[in-house]
């Protein structure tokens, strides 16, 4: 079972990874998070932050793997007893963003809906669902224009 209170030094390293990320030093942040993932494989926050860095680097599959791991950890003991639903919602939302970046829109929609189920006040997830609706609308207009029924080159 993971210790829900990692040692202070590891929490400080997680904070440093966030500072590096916010300073635009994504590769350095990722290196720190990779090391922390090895040292603390059961700490949901490491996998969550790692997934977000990878998402920003457009490394969609790796981002999704880290965010899936964060979700798995966050929804099992001891984390599920202490984490608020808002955190579960954030993880789902960021999973959805990684899936959308990877053009897996149906799965992204499911992740955003799961984010809203965990926290109905998650405006980011609601906004992301609205973006997917706009994408659907554009695709529908693209495929059902004035020449509907004609053969198209795809």
The gist of it:
Helices cover 73% and strands 0% of the residues. By secondary structure, it is an all-alpha fold. The protein folds into 2 domains: 1-81, Tetratricopeptide repeat domain (Serine Threonine Protein Phosphatase 5, Tetratricopeptide repeat, Alpha Horseshoe); 84-143.
Features:
single chain, 154 residues, mainly alpha, 73% helix
Explain this structure.
The chain has 2 domains: 1-81, Tetratricopeptide repeat domain (Serine Threonine Protein Phosphatase 5, Tetratricopeptide repeat, Alpha Horseshoe), CATH 1.25.40; 84-143. It is built from 8 helices and no strands. The protein has helices at residues 8-22, 26-39, 44-56, 60-74, 79-82, 85-101, 105-118, 123-143.
- What fraction, in percent, of the residue positions are helical? over 70%
The number of helical segments is 8
Kindly report the name of the CATH homologous superfamily of the largest domain.
Tetratricopeptide repeat domain
CATH class of the largest domain: Mainly Alpha
Regions with little confidence, pLDDT below 50 for 5+ residues: none
**Structural class by secondary-structure content:** mainly alpha
Please provide the ordered H/E string of secondary-structure elements. HHHHHHHH
N→C terminal distance: 51 Å
Return the CATH architecture of the largest domain: Alpha Horseshoe
Give me the CATH fold name of the largest domain.
Answer: Serine Threonine Protein Phosphatase 5, Tetratricopeptide repeat
Largest β sheet strand count, sense and barrel closure: none
The mean pLDDT is 90
Q: Gyration radius, to the nearest Å?
A: 18 Å
Beta strands, count: 0
Beta-strand residue fraction: under 5%
**What is the general shape?**
globular
Number of domains: 2
């Amino acid at each position: 079972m993971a210790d829900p209170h990692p040692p202070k030094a590891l929490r400080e390293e997680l904070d440093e990874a966030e500072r590096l990320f916010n300073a635009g030093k994504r590769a350095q942040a990722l290196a720190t998070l990779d090391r922390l993932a090895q040292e603390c494989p059961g700490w949901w926050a490491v996998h969550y932050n790692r997934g977000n860095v990878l998402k920003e680097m457009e490394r969609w599959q790796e981002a999704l793997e880290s965010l899936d791991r964060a979700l798995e950890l966050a929804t099992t003991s001891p984390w599920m007893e202490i984490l608020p639903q808002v955190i579960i919602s954030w993880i789902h939302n960021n999973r959805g963003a990684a899936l959308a970046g990877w053009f897996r829109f149906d799965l992204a929609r499911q992740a955003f809906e799961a984010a809203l189920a965990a926290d109905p006040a998650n405006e980011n997830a609601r906004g992301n669902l609205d973006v997917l609706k706009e994408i659907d609308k554009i695709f529908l207009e693209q495929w059902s224009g004035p020449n509907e029924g004609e053969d198209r080159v795809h």
